Amino acid sequence: MARILQQDDALEAACRHLAAGEAVAMPTETVYGLAADATNGEAVARIFEAKGRPRFNPLIAHVADMEMARRFAVFPPLAERLAGAFWPGPLTLVLPQAEGSAIHPLATAGLDTVALRCPRGFARQAIARLGRPLAAPSANVSGRISATTAEAVQAQLGTRIPLIVDGGPTPVGLESTIVKVAGETLTLLRPGGLAAEEIERVAGRALVRGTTGVEAPGMLASHYAPSARLRLNVAQVEPGEALLAFGPRRARGAETAVKVLNLSPAGDLREAAANLFGHLAALDLGAAAVIAVEPVPASGLGEAINDRLARAAAPRDTGGEKL
User: What start and end residues bound the annotated signal peptide (predicted)?
Assistant: First the structure.
């Protein structure tokens, strides 16, 4: 099984593994990531192998700061503004690759764009120490529930990687919001831990929605999935179902549920986002074949929560990942 080290004692060991081309699971503010040197093709391949991830699905390259980011991408003024407002933080920008970019094509899925994010905390420290960007999708088996604790990483990937850095539960609990910047046009590729309304406020323009194709992580129709089937926006809980609740009021028949977990009894969307993957995983450990999900408002972070729930409930003909 993977060795687990507390983050305060793990930086040297993590960087040693990363420099050797290995993959290491580590915390970010969003979810745990499975990190490897984004400029090393063999290291990136180890991420795909450990996760069982489709290789046509691009990865996010995580950087320590804007100086590093500019080595790999072209930043139009609008991207500069967004990075200045939200980095480090849960925003990923999809940008044209810079000439001579050293990001390995396996990490970009051969696209002429690259997805960049500057994370907070331990991951940023590791990138700065290593001096190279880290490709780091979510630290879970491809298509399954994202990990928000070191224990959840161990349960899914513990036999496939050498080290897990334990930073405790991740505070945001949803993967980053992904926005493609093309000149003055902003396209929302994946809602996430930064609400679209906050991005629009800083940008001074609306985000375009409705893109097609896989331009960034988290865009495949089916993933984030528990073993149990999800039934969304329920008004009535059927006997034998588990219930993922939201807010103070319950769906009819909630008393018949085999287990109930509430994303946020107070109806707080930030609390709900932080609890989403952990509660799904806990309900999935039970005997219920179906998890009923109460409605969650679509505003603010609710957009990202509903996106994850819809993908988790989709037919499971393919996998894909995130962070």
Answer: none
Residue located via tokens 């009819």:
252
User: What would the mean pLDDT of 65-82 be, rounded to a whole number?
Assistant: 97
Judging by DSSP bridges, how do beta strands 177-182 and 91-96 pair with one another?
parallel
Whole-number pLDDT of residue 160: 96
The whole-model pTM stands at 0.90
* Under 8 Å between Cβ of 303 and 247: no
Same domain membership, residue 26 and residue 60: yes
Reading the block at residue 9, the tokens are 């004692």
Q: Which is more confident, 21 or 316?
A: 21
Helix, strand and coil percent figures for the chain, each rounded to 5: 30, 20, 50
Answer yes or no: do 25 and 68 share one domain: yes
191-241 confidence digits (pLDDT tens): 999 999 999 999 999 999 976 555 666 555 555 678 899 999 999 999 999
Rounded CA separation 237/128 (Å): 49
User: DSSP string covering 144-203, please?
Assistant: BPPP-SHHHHHHHHTTT-SEEEE--S-SS-SPPEEEEEETTEEEEEE--SS-HHHHHHHH
Tokens read off for 211 = 């893109």
Same domain, 129 and 248: no
CA distances for 38 relative to 7, 44, 108, 166, 217, angstroms: 21, 6, 9, 22, 15
Maximum separation of any 2 CA atoms in the chain, in Å: 60
Same domain flag for 164 and 273: no
